[in-house]
Design goal:
This protein is an alpha+beta fold. It has helices at residues 42-64, 66-71, 77-90, 121-124, 149-152, 285-299, 303-313; strands spanning 15-20, 23-28, 130-134, 139-144, 161-172, 177-184, 188-189, 198-203, 211-224, 227-230, 238-245, 276-278, 281-283.
């Protein structure tokens, strides 16, 4: 008869169940604790840091995009934005792995980002918008030419009117600083051709130094008895980032050195008497010259003395 052991429900996650021919066997997990501080897990730690940085940046941006999210609701926007920002972080070549940021990555990768995954802007609207932006003056303009809505727009069911929306986002990803200026155009009927086109003017801070993003969207409306209503809760509205203007690099400051005339100093240097060392004593220069002259005289022998010396030492021949 098998022994019955009562288990604490709080410890069930620490057990492993294995199917066998005789039934199920339950045993405690035998696994060593992972030392995440080891050098072999350096790449995993770096990936975790960058993943968390991308998630926090996406959360900060989401607050700045609140006006757009209300018009184009999509629960997957935050997840897709985090994934996109993580790809941008990996393209940063300035910092080392684990310290890379979105601010130094390829910001232009955000061009074409769809705020509503179910409604692609370029599929809903067949006309690409024309965008003009002046960073120095702080102005932007989004324009559409004259068109027929029935031919250029994919109109959802029950929609009677349409409205174009444009926004300019100034973002500093390092500080999660986002400023959005959103402009909504006039509503016009989907059953009549638009002969004058659509123009949306945007204003932002002049000489803006942050990254600038221009978003354009289409909002469908159902007008019933003079009152506007959302179509399908706004889930068929489309909006995307059409243009990206990266921040301008700071101009280098050159240090200018004034021309100064350099005059050479012609003052003669004072003469210093040099002394030679012999052991621990200092020998004056004049004494050193005297001793060297004596040694030269000793080495120089007169010719007459050399002949007498040779004659005395010569052998006697018989």
């Amino acid at each position: 008869m098998s022994k019955i052991i009562y288990l604490n429900p709080q410890h069930l996650e620490k057990l492993s169940v294995y199917p066998t021919a005789n039934g199920f066997i339950t045993s405690a997990r035998q696994r060593k604790a992972t030392n995440w501080n080891s050098e072999s897990y350096e790449k995993i730690r770096s990936h975790r840091k960058e993943f968390g940085r991308a998630a926090s940046t996406a959360a900060g941006i989401r607050l700045g995009f609140k006006q757009i999210i209300d018009l184009v609701p999509d629960t997957t926007m935050y997840r897709r934005m985090s994934s996109k920002l993580l790809d941008i972080i990996k393209q940063d070549t300035t910092h080392i792995r684990g310290e890379r940021t979105v601010e130094e990555g390829q910001i232009t990768e955000l061009a074409g980002f769809q705020f509503n995954q179910q409604a692609n802007f370029y599929r809903v609207c067949n006309m690409p918008p024309k965008v003009m932006l002046d960073r120095q003056l702080g102005t932007a303009q989004v324009s559409f030419p004259a068109f027929t809505p029935a031919h250029e727009l994919r109109i959802p069911k029950n929609a009677t009117h349409v409205q174009f929306v444009a926004a300019v986002h100034a973002i500093n990803f390092d500080e999660n600083d986002v400023r959005t200026q959103c402009v909504k155009g006039d509503m016009f009927s989907l059953h009549q051709p638009l002969t004058q086109g659509v123009t949306l003017d945007l204003q932002f801070d002049a000489h803006e130094k942050r990254h600038l993003f221009v978003s354009v969207g289409v909002v469908f409306i159902e007008v019933l008895h003079g009152r506007p209503y959302k179509v399908a809760g706004g889930h068929q509205n489309a909006m995307c980032i059409t243009h990206v203007f990266p921040k301008q690099a700071a101009s280098a400051i050159e240090a200018v050195v004034p021309n100064v005339e350099v005059v050479a100093d012609t003052t003669p240097l004072p003469t210093v008497k040099t002394t030679a060392k012999k052991g621990n004593r200092r020998i004056p220069s004049f004494l050193q010259q005297y001793r060297s002259s004596r040694q030269q005289r000793k080495q120089t022998v007169p010719v007459s003395h050399a002949i007498d010396h040779a004659a005395k030492n010569a052998p006697l021949l018989l």
